[in-house]
Design goal:
The protein is of the alpha+beta class. It has helices spanning 9-31, 37-58, 66-84, 97-106, 108-130, 134-195, 200-215, 251-254, 263-271, 325-397, 399-427, 430-435, 437-452, 462-465, 470-491, 521-526, 537-547, 572-583, and strands spanning 2-3, 61-62, 230-237, 240-247, 257-258, 275-278, 297-305, 308-317, 455-460, 495-504, 507-514, 551-556, 562-569.
Length: 584
Amino acid sequence: MKRFDTPYMADWFAISLRWIMLVGLTVSLGLGQKLEIGSAWPLGLLILWNLTMTALAGLNVRTSYHRRLNMLVDLVLTGIFFWGQGGIRGPAFWAGLLPILTSSIYFEFVGAVITSLLFSGLVIYTGYQLDGDLSLSIVIAGILSLLGILFGVIGRRMMHHMRQNRALWVDAEEKKRAIQNERMRAIYELTSTLSSTLSYKRVLDSALDMSASALNPSVEPEQTTSDPLVGAVMLFNAGKLRIGSARRFTNADMRITLEGSEGILKKALDEGEPIIFKDIGYDPELGRIVALRNCTSGYVFPLRSGFNVYGVLLFAHPEPGFFTTERAHLLDIIGRQAVIAIQNARLYQDLVEEKERLADVYEEARKKLARDLHDGPTQSVAAMAMRLNISRRMLAKDPKSANEELLKLEELAHRTTKEIRHMLFTLRPLILESQGLAAAIQSMADKMMETFSQRVVVEIDERASQQLEMGKQGIIFYIIEEAVNNARKHAQAPVIIVRLRQMEVGVLLLEIADNGVGFDVKSITQNYDKRSSSSLGMVNLRERAELVNGLLNIESVPGKGTNVQVFIPLTEEAADRLHHARRK
């Protein structure tokens, strides 16, 4: 026996006709009161045989020489049954139709004719043996032969039609399988492409191209320009949705920015689930896009990972029922892969930008060091050289005045040495690595007093500072050093206070406050890009606060001093809570 993937319709036709004939023969025996086991046992065997064929057909199983075996069994058992029931004089004189019908199905015209001739011969022989009268037997045999020809013609046409339908079905299945394979290939190519590139633009273009290919695998590459599918990737930038990449969008459409606060976009972003929708033209935001006005159905997939929302993947088509469940499921897969790729590309882009920003920070630090050297030690050394020259001349004329000048020169040298040591300390405070943040800040305060006579009061909560990692301690030290230096140079403050304390669970608050002249924060912030390159204190503070994932807040009023606040999260949950509260 052999098992097949699909059923044979010929078997089911033969089984159905056989059941009809068996029921008819059973009714005939009942009406003729001949339904006895002794004479009707071949009918019972035919019923068991048809039950067996039904079971095999249900399992898509066929025996060896299946068609021949069916024809032979039907012919033999029906012939025995016909003989046992008295031939043409019995109630089952028409039993010969059973093997003729099954033969017309399995062997079409030839099978039906051969079976009818064989059974006709049996009819004539039975009439001769049982009745001795051949006239009626010849008439019945002739009728069976004509029926064999008729059923043979019908069987041929019916089987030809069935073969055509089966061929169409097989072609449809093969085409469907080919489409499925093409879609799986598109998904594989999309995954490979997205995982092999960190280019933002290439990720977006690949997501659209592969989606179109997966949705319409039968469309040839050269025909893609005629494909009416509209697609776009919209990404958030500065709080608005902007077109990152699109297909079939007009130039005007590419410049459109959307809020994502109304209609389908808002619903998809709020729920975080893909949506299939209609009536695009009536949408308050998508209705502005010209390329979507001829489309009657659409699909939007929110590009989000956790709390991070990157944008949406949008497709639209003129056909109302284009986005079937199967296509939507396919786009879900592509959308999830696109989210991962966009996330990776954005992380890579952030790393590139961070690298460039750090390079700018190092360059600014180098310039700051150069400025400090020029404004401090360099000027002092030049002054010392000038005074040495004056002292040398005065030694010959006025030794007493020369001695006073040398004392001033010595004092200037000591002050210059202190300035250089202070600069070296701020460049690399070794005490920070050995004794921690509190000791480093106190040491900086002492040096500010010693070098510049600037009073700095330090109020550090030891338990709060000990919660900070060493890397964060270094950044916070430089924030404090920058803020204190700015206050010393510009605030003219008698006292600068540095505080570090626990504000709430997982968040520390750093404050650098002074009682100096203060300034208008709003005015300075608005005109900051017009200031000279040497006035970058606020930028440095903000960038260093971002390095610890913190928030910078500057409060100042002219004549009432300045308070620089840095909120420092200790955990990712605290950072999310802190930044979420700021957005509100």
